[in-house]
Amino acid sequence: MSQLQGQLQGQLQGKVAFITGGGSGIGRGIAERLARDGADVFVTDIDLAGAEHTVDLVTQLGRRAGACKANVAAPLQLEQAVAECVAKFGRLDIAVANAGIGRGASVLEMTLKDWQDQLDVNLTGVFLTVQAAARQMVRLGNGGRIVCISSLAAETTGAGIWSYSATKAGVRIMVRGWAQELGPAGITVNAIGPGVIDTPLAAGLAGEREGVIRKSLEQRTPVGRVGRPEDIAGLVSFLTGPDGAFMSGSYVIMDGGLRDARASWDPDPKALEEIQRIMARGEARRAAQQALLDERD
Ligand SMILES: NC(=O)c1ccc[n+]([C@@H]2O[C@H](COP(=O)([O-])OP(=O)(O)OC[C@H]3O[C@@H](n4cnc5c(N)ncnc54)[C@H](O)[C@@H]3O)[C@@H](O)[C@H]2O)c1
C-alpha cells in the first residue's frame, strides 16, 4: 500500500491493538483514537461493563472490537485475554499497558494491602501485559509497538503520592530494558508520563468542571487547561504510527507544562466542600473497584 493510500485509509488500517484498563478514562480515549486511525481494538478491564461500552464506541467508528474481563494483576487472566485477542483478530500489532490505580497515603498510614495492590496493578500488571503481548508479537513475527502508561509522578512526587510514584518510576525505567530486548524482534517500547488528565482516577487533582480546584489547576498550568484522554491518545497514535517508528526506550511527559509550574496553591475555603464531594464519589468507586481487583483466580 502506498503511503498516500495508508493516510487516506487511516495510518493503522489492518492493525490490531490490545489495551488494558480500556473501560474508562485514558484507556477508552486511546481505544477511540486508534480506531479512528484504522485499527481494530481489543480492550480488557476488571470493569466489563466499561470495557463493553468502549467496544460500542469503537464499533460505531466502523472498526472491529472485542472485550473481556481481565485483571492485569492475575497472570492467567491476562495471558488468556491476549490469546483471545489474537484468536479473534488473527494478529497483534499494538499493546498499551494502561490499567492503573492510585492508593495514596502517608508513610505513617499506608497499609500493606494498599501498597501491595498498587504494586500488583501498576508495576506487575504492566510487566505481565508486556510479557504476554510481546510473546505473541515475537511468535507472530510481525514486530509491534508497545506503549506503557507511566505518569508525571515518575519524575515528581510528594506527600501521599510517593508509593504511586515508585510504581510509575518503575515503569519508566523498565521500558528502557524492554526496548533493548525486543528491538531485534522489531518491537518498540515506550512510556508516556501524563500530567493531570480529567478522568475518574484523577478527580481529586482535576476537580469538578467550573469548580475552584479546576480553576486553580488551569491557572497554574502553562497551557491553561486540564489534560484530556484524547491528548494522551494523540501521543499513543504517534508512537504506534509510522512517525513513531524510530522511537524506543523513551519516556515522554505530556502535562501542559505542569511539571515546572508552581507546585502548591492557596486553598480556597470553597475547595473544602468540593474535596468532600469528590472524596465521597472516590470512596464509592474505590469500594466497587476493590472487590473486582481482589478477584484473581
Ligand atoms: N488521570 C491522570 O491524571 C493520570 C495521570 C498520570 C498517569 N495516569 C495513568 O493512566 C492510566 C489510566 O488511568 P485513568 O486516569 O484513565 O484512570 P481510570 O480509573 O479512569 O481508568 C483506569 C481503568 O483501569 C481499570 N483497572 C484498574 N485496575 C485494573 C486491573 N487490575 N486490571 C484491569 N483493569 C484495571 C479500571 O477499572 C478503569 O477502567 C493509569 O495507569 C494511571 O495511573 C493517569
Explain this structure.
The chain is globular, with a radius of gyration of 19 Å. Strands 3-2-1-4-5-6-7 form a 7-stranded parallel β-sheet, sandwiched between helices. Strand 1, helix 2 (25-36) and strand 2 form a beta-alpha-beta unit. The longest helix has 29 residues, at 112-140. It starts with a helix and ends with a helix. The mean pLDDT is 94. Helix content is 49%, strand content 13%. It is α/β, with parallel strands linked by helices. Nicotinamide-adenine-dinucleotide binds at residues 20-21, 23-27, 45-47, 50, 71-73, 98-101, 121, 125, 149, 151, 194, 196-197, 199-202, 289, 293.
Blueprint (SSEs and pairs):
Layout: H1 3-9, E1 16-20, H2 25-36, E2 40-45, H3 48-60, E3 65-69, H4 75-89, E4 94-97, H5 112-140, E5 144-149, H6 162-182, E6 187-194, H7 203-206, H8 212-220, H9 229-240, E7 251-254, H10 269-293
Parallel strand pairs: 1-2, 1-4, 2-3, 4-5, 5-6, 6-7
Helix pairs in contact: 2-3, 2-9, 4-5, 5-6
Throw out a few tags for this protein.
297 residues; alpha/beta; 10 helices; binds nicotinamide-adenine-dinucleotide
Question: What is this structure, in a nutshell?
Answer:
The chain is of the alpha/beta class and 297 residues long.
